[in-house]
Amino acid sequence: ILEVLANLTAKEDIRRLIDETIATFGRLDVLVNNAGIIAVTDIEDSDVDVKVDQIMDTNVRSVVLLCHLSVPYLLKTKGNIVSVSSVASTKPSCVDMITKCLAIDLGVKGVRVNAVNPAVIKTNIFDAGFGIDLQTTQQLIYKDCEQTYPLKRPGDPEEVAEAIAFLASDKASFITGATLEVDGGSMWTSRGANPNATSNNNQ
């Protein structure tokens, strides 16, 4: 196991991450893009541009740079890329389209590219993104999942990991350009996991 502390908004840190991986293992078989932040804004916020830059740098630009610097090694191993996207907000629109475009470009060279789209998963991301403590998260967001998700609960990190492992494995050897929802069916419900939502209109 190799642990590398890196700022994924900095190209040189990403380059160092890849270089240390190759120096340690000698090859690269799978790239999993899993960096992400949550930032809430709207078009009337005075600092909307700052928040958008933060979101795009961390959630999208890092994916592009990691793929760019990893592809030369993935071409050698006929490896693959799995990006962790989402079922909501700006990030999935960008990451899902990057996934599909790269799948077309790299498929002819033997490299598969896919993504998983989780809904609410029981991690600390809400605490990190909104300053919501665990108890409040459970009371508001998790409870809303129990009420609105067809499977009546939020997801577990292990369930997302299993989906990533599947897409990265030979069992998915004929799958590329796919976006796999790991969302308890929330995409097909009216509100998803928004604790402040009151409308039952379809998304």
UniProtKB/TrEMBL annotation:
Q: Which PANTHER family match?
A: EG:BACR7A4.14 PROTEIN-RELATED (PTHR43975:SF2), ZGC:101858 (PTHR43975)
The protein in question is named Uncharacterized protein
